[in-house]
Write a structure and sequence with these properties.
The complex is a heterotrimer.
Chain A (H helix, E strand, L loop, with lengths): L10 H17 L18 H10 L6 E3 L7 H8 L12 E4 L21 E5 L9 E4 L7 E3 L8 H10 L6 E6 L2 E5 L4 E4 L1
Parallel strand pairs in A: 1-2, 2-3, 3-6
Antiparallel strand pairs in A: 4-5, 4-8, 6-7
Chain B lengths: L8 H17 L9 H7 L1 H11 L4 H10 L4 H12 L17 E6 L25 H4 L21 H7 L28 H9 L3 H12 L8 E14 L8 E18 L7 E10 L3 H13 L16 H7 L2 H9 L6 H31 L1
Antiparallel strand pairs in B: 1-2, 2-3, 3-4
Helix pairs in contact in B: 2-4, 3-4, 3-5, 4-5, 8-10, 9-10
Chain C lengths: L10 H16 L5 E2 L13 H10 L5 E6 L6 H14 L2 E2 L8 E5 L12 E5 L13 H9 L4 H14 L10 E3 L3 E3 L9 H4 L5 E6 L4 E5 L5 E3 L26 E5 L6 E5 L2 H17 L1
Parallel strand pairs in C: 2-3, 2-4, 4-5, 5-8
Antiparallel strand pairs in C: 1-9, 6-7, 6-10, 8-9, 11-12
Helix pairs in contact in C: 1-2
The chains are: A alpha/beta, B alpha+beta, C alpha/beta.
Chain lengths: 190, 368, 283
């Protein structure tokens, strides 16, 4: 990992198009919008790197968990985002293995918007154990089968959803695609 | 009149702007006013626009005043909208008003004191008689030879009180970054740093009126002007590559320290309390209003009953910004006919219901 | 426009607003505070909507701006020009052709699609503001979902007038959790919010709040079983296109009580008028 790894080639337009992909993903859970820009920040996938550059800056402490920590120099150089003191103090957490959701900042009832967003890079957004998504953004319950989620994901998510309006928002990334799972969703095993 | 769908909004706007430009220029047989003249001869207006526009730049403030035909709130708005697009390169060090190059310094609580009473350029003792000589053009004012800036030590009046322990310590200095309501939404309860920031750019008339209300008993402070200072201070910043402060310029500030009614308890001996005002440029009215309202908003902190408008932090901060206030008051000029139409339908229906009910009652009474 | 960034706002401000929008989408109906900036248009004239639009807008977007349902009202013209000037994007008056619609006081009559976003300009985002002035207090009420005050107000209305007297900005419950101001749209438009296919974003510039309703989300006007929500509309048909299903403006024709009722949604009305002309031509 060196600082030669580029950020957005066109910071204004690429940040805008990536943001619209993230907004699409959060507004239409289960849809899998594609990131249109080219970033090289291994071990981060295109989508993971793009979400970080789109949303993180000097105002948002970030936590890079596990192997993603090797992208620190790249992220700090291109975004100016500070390192969070702990995983619980981060606005954005990036990981390839899902940390226990109850370790993350879930906000308060009066200010639930202060909760963390978890950017989780997974091996695939299909072919995994099937889940059913219910809730805002969905016209009808929708099937979704990502790989790489922990075995107790449905249980952890139910606990997260019960906190509503507090709770963690999740963005799954794989390759150039992403999927938004806002805290307002109920998720069951299919 | 036949109904014509309101087309041509674009043409109307262009025509309005054209008319406005002509009105701004005024009588073309007279010379156009220059921004340098405004900056140099309408200094108090420039100061107010810099304070409420939250941007210290006399030339831009003068331009805004010219562009706004002297409407100072409109000018402050122009300056604010420009300010918000500027990148932030660095933060300055806190300015040292102790080291102010004084133009004016007065205290109302001691007859004389180290550093003395310096009247400076004040309207205070002018007789408010229109000076018709000023109406004559090219009136030359003979410049007075300027006295050398006083090198005499001018301690703060509050420091003199503090030596005896008669006044509460000034605000606690912390390492924490001060809040900034130009970056973050105002949240309540608001701390004193954000309150002072809000007042420093608040509407002068609003600060004046609220300060006045405290004097008339709506949250009495028992204020004394401990000290007012007007003058120049250096603005310093520490470039990371140097690691020590360098001066990047000087700005004119007005500072007011009010000495207010004392508080105390069984364990704490009584002490005077403080109200603080600081603003861009020369505006004692603004600094004093600010100091009165600052002290009033400390009511709860000092264990007083907060009952008056000036003591209600949320009320004061939510309404002191004249850019917000003028926008929202004036937005009533925008079309509201969709809402008004739904009110029309509702009131017609309610009147019909009421009329029917009355008729029914009359009918019943007639039968009986 | 030289000297300013694409869509006026600097990138740091856009990121801050974008983060607020994403949280707003994740918590439907919750007012997210944001560091609203001074805009070159006055507060109360759409600065919140403009900031939201500026943060989402890209070069491939097609923007429609309406005020009171019309594309040609002066403030709609002014805001549309602002974006044409600062972002160089394409604008339209056709609801169906727009990818982003910024609106004040109306929802278009033409149903919106999943690939569209509607941005509302909001003057007073706090639905409880008229009942409780302190935002510190109302924030707690939202935290606890304690909305008894609003029910009492509606009940008092019924006791006094026989029915609920609110005719616009009718308070709604979003996703069964948050009481929300739909902005001052007429009650006629409120049902269009329920399970709308498009994403709905709300921006309040002066009050520095952003909130959202994701697509297909439940939006229920607050009411009572025996006094259900009623929408108001002038009973006439549009004098220009004959529509009986659209919201109408009342135009004063003379000082003897003459009135003309016409669609407030000028695009909808123009579309119906040209369809009629086509039919007449075909016949």
């Amino acid at each position: 990992m060196t600082l030669d790894a580029p950020g957005f080639a066109d910071p204004v337009m690429e940040a805008q198009s990536c943001f619209r992909a993230v907004l699409d993903a959060m507004a239409h859970p289960g849809s899998l919008p594609v990131i249109a820009c080219v970033l090289a920040a291994p071990p981060l996938d295109q989508a993971t790197a793009a979400v970080l550059l789109t949303l993180a800056d000097a105002a948002t402490p970030v936590w890079l968990a596990g192997e993603t920590a090797s992208a620190w120099d790249w992220l700090a150089f291109h975004s100016g985002a500070p390192r969070a003191a702990s995983i619980g103090g981060a606005g954005f957490i990036c990981a390839t293995e899902m940390p226990n959701l109850d370790l993350l900042e879930a906000g308060s009832d009066a200010a639930p918007e202060t909760a963390a967003t978890l950017i989780l890079q997974v091996p695939a957004l299909e072919g995994g154990p099937p889940l059913i998504l219910y809730g805002p953004g969905l016209e009808a319950p929708t099937r979704f089968a990502p790989q790489g989620l922990p075995e107790d994901f449905v249980k952890q998510w139910s606990a997260n959803h019960r906190l509503f309006p507090r709770g963690i928002d999740l963005i799954l990334c794989c390759g150039e695609q992403l999927c938004g799972l806002p805290r307002s969703l109920r998720i069951g095993a299919a | 009149m036949a109904y014509v769908a309101v087309k041509g909004g674009e043409r109307a706007i262009d025509a309005a702007h054209d008319w406005l430009a002509r009105a701004r220029r005024g009588d073309r047989s007279l010379p156009e006013i220059g921004t340098a003249q405004i900056a140099s001869q309408l200094g108090r207006a420039v100061d107010r626009v810099m304070a409420e526009g939250s941007c210290y730049d006399p030339d831009l403030a003068a331009l805004a005043i010219k562009q706004a035909q002297g409407d100072l709130i409109e000018a402050a708005f122009l300056l604010r909208a420009y300010r918000t697009t500027l990148p932030r390169f660095a933060h300055s060090e806190p300015v040292e008003t102790d080291a102010m190059l004084l133009r004016r310094r007065i205290s109302a609580i001691y007859k004389d004191l180290p550093g003395g009473q310096v009247l400076g350029p004040t309207y205070d003792y002018t007789h408010r008689l229109l000076d018709f000589a000023l109406a004559a053009e090219s009136l030359e004012v003979t410049p007075l030879p300027l006295a050398a800036a006083s090198s005499e030590d001018t301690p703060r009046v509050t420091a003199l009180l503090d030596q005896e322990g008669l006044i509460e310590p000034s605000g606690v200095s912390t390492e924490a970054e001060p809040g900034d309501l130009t970056r973050d939404a105002l949240a309540f309860p608001a701390e004193r740093d954000v309150r002072l920031q809000s007042l420093a750019r608040g509407d002068e008339g609003f600060l004046l009126a609220l300060g006045y209300s405290t004097q008339r008993g709506y949250g009495n402070n028992h204020p004394f002007v401990g000290e007012i200072r007007v003058g120049e201070v250096a603005v310093e910043l520490v470039p990371p590559e140097l690691g020590f402060p360098i001066t990047i310029g000087t700005i004119t500030l007005t500072e007011c320290e009010m000495v207010n009614q004392f508080s105390g308890s069984k364990t704490e001996p009584p002490q005077f309390t403080r109200g603080y005002g600081l603003c861009f440029g020369h505006s004692e009215r603004r600094a004093m209003g600010m100091a009165l309202v600052d002290r009033a908003m400390r009511a709860e902190e000092l264990g007083e009953n907060a009952t008056a408008p000036a003591q209600d932090i949320e009320f004061v901060l939510s309404h002191c910004d004249n850019i917000e206030a003028t926008g929202f008051v004036e937005h009533l000029k925008l079309p509201h006919y969709v809402d008004f139409q739904s009110e029309l339908e509702t009131i017609r229906r309610m009147r019909a219901t009421a009329t029917a009910a009355t008729a029914a009652t009359v009918a019943t009474e007639t039968e009986a | 426009m030289s000297g300013y960034n694409f869509a006026y706002l600097d990138e740091q401000t856009k990121r801050m607003i974008r983060r607020a929008i994403l949280k707003a989408v994740a918590i439907p109906g919750h007012q997210v505070p944001f560091g609203g900036r001074e805009m070159p248009l006055p507060y109360g004239w759409g600065t919140g909507g403009i900031q939201v639009t500026a943060a989402i807008l890209g070069p491939s977007d097609v923007l429609k701006v309406i005020d009171q349902g019309a594309d040609d009202t002066t403030n709609a013209v002014s805001i549309r020009r602002f974006f044409a000037r600062t972002a160089g994007i394409e604008t339209t008056t056709h609801t169906a052709d727009a990818s982003v619609i910024q609106t004040r006081h109306r929802i278009p009559e033409t149903p919106l699609r999943a690939d569209q976003i509607i941005v509302y300009q909001v003057p007073l985002p706090e639905p409880l503001a008229k009942l409780e002035q302190s935002r510190a207090e109302t924030r707690q009420m939202h935290a606890l979902a304690e909305y008894g005050l609003m029910h009492v107000k509606l009940y008092e209305d019924i006791a006094r007038y026989g029915h609920i007297s609110i005719s616009y900005d009718y308070p709604v419950m979003v996703n069964g959790r948050y009481l929300m101001s739909p902005s001052p749209i007429p009650a006629f438009d409120t049902p269009k919010m329920h399970r709308m296919a498009a994403l709905q974003l709300f921006g309040a510039g002066r009050e520095k709040r952003i909130y959202a309703i994701p697509p297909h989300t439940d939006v229920k006007p607050l009411d009572f079983d025996d006094h259900p929500f009623r929408l108001t509309r002038a009973p006439q048909a549009c004098g220009l296109c004959g529509a009986r299903d659209s919201y109408l403006d009342e135009v004063v024709m003379d000082d003897r009580g003459g009135r003309l009722f016409v669609c407030s949604d000028t695009d909808y009305c123009a579309g119906r008028q040209s369809m009629r002309q086509d039919e007449d031509a075909a016949a």
